[in-house]
């Protein structure tokens, strides 16, 4: 039997609107992110072609919700139908589960191009000569059961490659019965278990893999999305190659600062140089700085932030050192100095609540900004 | 910074270049007449420092001469870095340059920045603070317009002082911070309570959260309905599929047919069973009838026998009852006789007891009478004693009268003694052995006893004759007689002849009163209410013969008790006999009634037997046996038929169920089809609307909006806190920052007013009052001269403070003392000199004569020669 090649992808979450991303008045980041998710179909198809694969296994959550708009699912089907040599095997996940997305799957069954195959029942499907696909569609949004359980008893023809396709979290050997056991390939005699749900790429074992989403949608993984080009041969270990498909990079970086460190320059040094427009960056500032450094940091962030698709400067873990020189800069004496001292005292108080301290600290930083503004 | 020279060209009246130079560190005075251009010079210097060279403001245009031209101003200043020339030109070919030793340091905007840095930040900082514009020079003008202008200028001056104070408190940056803070706060909130501004981002965020929440809830509800519709459709489809399944339909039909046939067969068999049952029922009725007749006959015979027996017994009982009634009547008669005898005995005993009691009472009355009679007698005696004593007690003088008599007697004695003492005394001394006696008034005179002679007496001297003594009348003649007459009168009134009688009568009266009291007490003890009640009580007691004989009372009472007891016993015996008679009479009546009833019963039973005819018991028994056999036969036949019968109710229920199932299936199908269509349409519409997508999007947007709202709320709190901190610090700093001002100002004020102080207004930071000799005078009511002096001194104090802070600035005074009188101006000059020790002061004045006494470096404004201009 020749080597059987396919693409393993999951969690396209088509239709996700990214409403949790603030839209700048003059920007269109949400639209670009949505478009990039749709574009992942084409990039997966290209990966299939590049790797000589005629099958794409989508391991759940192809759609972000159970009721995507007609434009979303029709355009997706149209894109998949663009190359009839590539067969798309689509597994319902928890987001587009059978129960909630019943109308969706009915329509896909009725209207999908011939090379697009919704897998709405847990029954073996011979997808190629010598290769049987064992799908485990998710019936409920949250079932509390192991979605891969049917694999153990699913039959296949003798000598066929057994390829499992499931969607759900993997257990940490607690045997809670609610998730997929990591040795499911063994218990179900699988040559490969293609999993979805986890948006980051993860190799659970030699034959069990999460492809992760082809287009990232969160800062957690700090790398572009991939799909997996898999080659299976009976009796041999799977050959799994990662193919980068993500347009946007979601990255989170830590900026560790120390007092009197040039915070603005440090931020600039940290920022990636390339592809800023296609990068969503979250910088978590940590450590301690003075008011001046914080003002410089904020200024640098304001200067460079718009260069990115999305830029977040998180300062929750950045402490403020109220240096005397900073307070002197507000004023060496007089009313402003008195106000600054009062706010500094509150910001460093042991008795006030965290909220009150934060308000006082922010007020002091604001006063510092006003004074610098007046001096400039 | 110190000014060294000023040069103007094409500035108002200076159509040619003019220059002031030689300005020293201390006090400099440019004293020139009016219209010389001092104020122009002031304005020119101010324009150079504060108005950009590109400006075409009205103030700049006002600098241009009537003939036109571009105003040019330059000053030479000295700083720690050396001397620089600052020059500006406005309107035409504007320029700004800074040169040092002819070398261009900066020009245009760079020159402006350079000048700005030199000033330390901008207008009012610090030079503008200590320059006094010409403001009051025309105050004395008669024209109201000019007076108003001067007043405005004076106000400006005072306001400038206020600004200085504010600046010394760091106010410009404070103002900026406060202004910015309030500006930003004002974007979000309005009013004292900081409510969200209508068109502001805070209100917008609140509205957005509200709108998104409502939208989210709507979408969630729509999604819920969609899920419900999906569930309903799933259930409906499953139900319809099952109902329309061909096998299911055939099965339902088969079940219905089978149930119908089974029911028909069961019904027919049931009818046959029912016919047999009717036969059984008829046989049963026949048996029942025969059995009834037999039982009736038997009952009638038994009844007749029983009635006969009962009548016999009743007759016997009736006879016994009559005998008992007669015996009871006899016993009653005996008992009643005994009772009558007992009653009579009681009456006799009562009569005897009454007689005994009467006799006892008579004896008691006789005793009582004796006692009462004796008592009355003693009482009468006592009454009599009392009456005689009372009569005696009325005689004789009472103690008072006796005391009066005794008093009168005493008066007689006293009168006599008095008279005798004054009267002639006759004392007879008998000779021893004399025979005769001398008598006076017939009584012999005692030897040696003096006898008074109060009236004519005759001494009879035996053997001698008679000697008449006639005493002369004394001064108290008649007193004794009056006393004696009074005594006699008193004695007469009581019926006594002498005093002894009177005393005896008085003693008798006292004795009578004592006896009267004793008799009265005795009477009272015997007859408290008097004697008459005793007599009445005596009269009430009948007189009986004490010796009458009769029965003894206790014996009579004992006999009466015995007779009473006997009567009670006789009464009880009589009552018992009466009750026995009553009972026996009742019983006899009953037995007679029972006898009648049993006789009636026997008659009725005999009638019953006769009504049954001639049939015998044996005949009826035979007939009953035949009827029972017929019944058993019918029952056996019915049982056999019923045993083979199918369950009709079960068959009917099965048929009903089969029909119900079929009908329900048809109804369900009829209901489910349109319902399914409706659900299909709803689901199609709902899923096509991308409800879940929109819900997820709205939830995410809501989270963002809530975060944004939280951020804004935090921002508002931060700004509020900052504003509060700034205001608190500003208020708190005033007192601290006034202190150096006051300290600096104090010696200057004391030059003019030795004990004066200024108070400050917390609100506008202006001097509010001048306190002299403990009296505070508001600044606005001070004279114009005093106001300008105060303003100038305050300005000088601030200039010193600025200099001390390293922000040295020249003080330029343009006719700052126009209302100050000659005396006061001397002190002001001293103040200026005092401050000029470490300040550069430039005084511009038109009062040449007055300012001659100021001293200091005299400045001259001179036209610049062409050569100098070229330089």
From TrEMBL, chain A:
Q: Which SUPFAM superfamilies would you find in this protein's record?
A: Metallo-dependent phosphatases (SSF56300)
Q: Name one Pfam family in it.
A: Metallophos
GO molecular function annotation: exonuclease activity
User: Is the keyword Oxidoreductase in the record?
Assistant: no
Q: Could you tell me which residue ranges the Calcineurin-like phosphoesterase domain spans?
A: 4-107
Checking InterPro entries in the record gives: Calcineurin-like_PHP (IPR004843), DNA_Repair-Maintenance_Comp (IPR050535), Metallo-depent_PP-like (IPR029052), UCP033093_metalloPase (IPR014577)
Q: Which residue ranges does UniProt annotate as crossing the membrane?
A: none
What keywords appear on the UniProt entry?
A: Exonuclease, Hydrolase, Nuclease
Matching PANTHER family, A to Z?
Answer: COMPONENT OF ATP-DEPENDENT DSDNA EXONUCLEASE, NUCLEASE SBCCD SUBUNIT D
Protein name per UniProt: Exonuclease SbcD
Native organism is: Roseivivax halodurans JCM 10272
TrEMBL record, chain B:
Q: Origin organism of this chain?
A: Roseivivax halodurans JCM 10272
Listed Gene3D superfamilies: P-loop containing nucleotide triphosphate hydrolases
What are the coiled-coil residue ranges?
A: 209-283, 325-425, 688-722
Per its UniProt record, what InterPro entries does this chain match?
P-loop_NTPase
Respond yes or no to whether keyword Coiled coil is given for this record. yes
Note whether RNA-binding occurs among the keywords: no
- What name appears for this protein in its UniProt entry? Chromosome segregation protein SMC
Which keywords describe this protein according to UniProt?
A: Coiled coil
Which residue stretches does the UniProt record annotate as biased composition, category Basic and acidic residues? 576-590, 599-614
**Where is the region Disordered?**
572-614
Q: Which domain of life is it from?
A: Bacteria
